[in-house]
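Morning run. Coffee first, then this:
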Amino acid sequence: DAPFFGYDRGTGTEVPTGTPGSITVMAVDNLPCELPRDASESFANDLYERVLPALLGDDPSGMIDRATIARDGALTGPYTYLAEYAGSNMSDALNDD
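And here it is:
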């Protein structure tokens, strides 16, 4: 179950890593890279139907406000805890233009 293995180009078979004449293949399962097209289209449709109207001003539930981490160079209320995590230079970094 190692993330790498040897591959013999001549026989087309898996061989122990480091076998002379073989190539080493690194293969790690990564589901986000394997998302099918329909899942991507569904995600895009959800963004279009649910987020875009809120961004354009129709946001009665306050979704955009709740998701806004910083506004006008300052952390918003729910995210002020990040100031300590980011360090004392955070306000300087946010105010740099």
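The beta strands are 4-8, 13-15, 22-26, 70-71, 74-75. Good start to the day.
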